[in-house]
């Protein structure tokens, strides 16, 4: 283990303790109230799935753009993407709890609802499972194909691998976008099957991409304090990551407001009720907190150049974004089940710790299996010689 990864060794102990506490609490919660467990679990699962999915999306963007900013975060993004097999296993409780989550799985409810009958050719259990298998198949193949080629380049120095990575990433990004969009429809939007938003899939990807960027920015800050990355990663690379974070904060806000504006202007009962449910009983306060912490505060902080170039400050902004990303997931999912009362349940914390602890352990394991900085990538020589200049 090199010095850079030793900095993350303490994370393993914390993640392991969190996983044990969370798993034990989740098991107890399932025995006590499997319905509440399923509702809490879907929120935790979506949050941590976002870090893996976001890592995969960014990985393909890195290969397509070939920017030096991507070289320093490529391996952490690969590690995040390679957690997909674990996320597939962790999807099993969602499948087991389908009846507690999705009203379209209840035959008696469908029989009395014309809209659900109309959507039944798509919203049905076999289709749900088959599509989930396709989604994970795409994500796992892409994650491992890209990371294996990159590691092969470390060993062989074959410059043509850079072209092959780009060739895979171009159609891969299209497949990724389609699969993530439909996954968001299946797993989250169908929690309220009468509601629909055509921009929901894009908003799902942007939010998760922002979360992954914030997380990897924190990891990169830790890695940059020890060799082989000490003195190699300069303020310019953190500035680039900060600019991307700034752009995604604005993009998330633009899409969120655009979705609200279109639905509110159309004034259709099935669509506006989704927002009305998030207006009363404390949910309006959550909405205001989400707006302030997910947009206003990071927007103002990231306007300042030094907050992007000084990695310690960028880490604090990243931590804020990671916290508020869960608030966003909670705001989207919880009102479906908790009617007009905004409240946290202890199982929300248990499932978050359980899934999160396992995911972080898997991420750290993957990060330890390859060089922190790609060795024979054509960008490597330019990066080391040119430093942070463009």
On the 0 to 100 scale, the average pLDDT is 91
User: Treating each run of at least 4 consecutive H or I residues as one helix, how many helices?
Assistant: 20
- Class from secondary-structure proportions: mainly alpha
- Measured as a percent range, the helix fraction is over 70%
Per DSSP E runs of 2 or more residues, the count of β-strands stands at 0
Number of domains: 1
How much of the polypeptide forms β-strand, as a percent range?
A: under 5%
End-to-end C-alpha gap: 31 Å
Radius of gyration over C-alpha positions, nearest whole angstrom:
21 Å
Explain the overall architecture.
It is a single chain. The protein has 390 residues and is an all-alpha fold. The protein has one domain. Helices cover 78% and strands 0% of the residues. It has helices at residues 3-6, 9-32, 34-65, 68-71, 74-81, 84-90, 92-96, 98-101, 107-111, 114-119, 125-156, 160-187, 200-223, 235-266, 269-276, 283-303, 305-309, 311-333, 346-367, 378-386. Helix 5 (74-81) packs across helix 19. The model has no long low-confidence stretch (mean pLDDT 91).
Secondary-structure map with pairings?
Layout lengths: L2 H4 L2 H24 L1 H32 L2 H4 L2 H8 L2 H7 L1 H5 L1 H4 L5 H5 L2 H6 L5 H32 L3 H28 L12 H24 L11 H32 L2 H8 L6 H21 L1 H5 L1 H23 L12 H22 L10 H9 L4
Helix pairs in contact: 2-3, 2-19, 3-5, 3-11, 3-12, 3-13, 3-18, 3-19, 5-11, 5-19, 11-12, 12-13, 13-14, 13-18, 14-16, 16-18
Structure in a nutshell:
This protein has 390 residues and is mainly alpha-helical. The protein is built from 20 helices and no strands.
């Amino acid at each position: 283990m090199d010095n850079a990864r030793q900095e993350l060794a303490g994370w393993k102990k914390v993640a392991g303790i969190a996983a044990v506490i969370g798993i034990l609490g989740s098991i107890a919660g399932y025995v006590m109230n499997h319905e509440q467990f399923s509702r809490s679990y879907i929120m935790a699962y979506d949050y941590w799935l976002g870090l893996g999915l976001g890592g995969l999306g960014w990985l393909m963007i890195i290969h397509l753009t070939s920017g030096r900013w991507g070289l320093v975060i490529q391996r952490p993004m690969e590690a995040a993407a390679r957690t997909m097999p674990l996320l597939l296993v962790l999807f099993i409780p969602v499948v087991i709890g389908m009846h507690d989550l999705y009203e379209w799985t209840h035959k008696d409810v469908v029989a009395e609802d014309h809209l659900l009958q109309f959507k039944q050719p798509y919203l049905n259990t076999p289709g749900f499972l088959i599509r989930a298998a396709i989604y994970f198949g795409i994500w796992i193949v892409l994650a491992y194909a890209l990371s294996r080629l990159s590691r092969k380049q470390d060993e062989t120095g074959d410059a043509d691998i850079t072209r092959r990575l780009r060739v895979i990433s171009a159609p891969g990004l299209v497949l990724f976008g389609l699969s993530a969009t439909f996954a968001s429809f299946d797993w989250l939007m169908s929690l309220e099957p009468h509601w629909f938003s055509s921009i929901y899939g894009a908003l799902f990807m942007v939010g998760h991409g922002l979360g992954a960027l914030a997380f990897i920015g924190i990891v990169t800050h830790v890695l940059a304090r020890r060799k082989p990355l000490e003195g190699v990663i300069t303020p310019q690379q953190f500035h680039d990551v900060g600019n991307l974070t700034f752009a995604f904060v604005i993009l998330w806000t633009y899409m969120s407001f655009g979705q609200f504006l279109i639905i509110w202007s159309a004034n259709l009962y099935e669509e506006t009720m989704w927002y009305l449910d998030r207006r009363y009983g404390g949910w309006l306060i959550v909405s205001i907190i989400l707006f302030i912490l997910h947009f206003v505060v990071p927007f103002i902080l990231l306007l300042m150049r030094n907050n992007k170039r000084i990695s310690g400050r960028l880490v604090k902004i990243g931590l804020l974004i990671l916290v508020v990303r869960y608030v966003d997931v909670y705001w989207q999912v919880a009102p479906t089940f908790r009617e007009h009362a905004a409240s946290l349940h202890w199982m929300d914390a248990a499932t978050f710790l359980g899934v999160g602890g396992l995911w972080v352990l898997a991420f750290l394991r993957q990060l330890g299996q390859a060089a922190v900085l790609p060795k024979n990538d054509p960008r490597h020589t330019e990066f080391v010689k040119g430093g942070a200049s463009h």
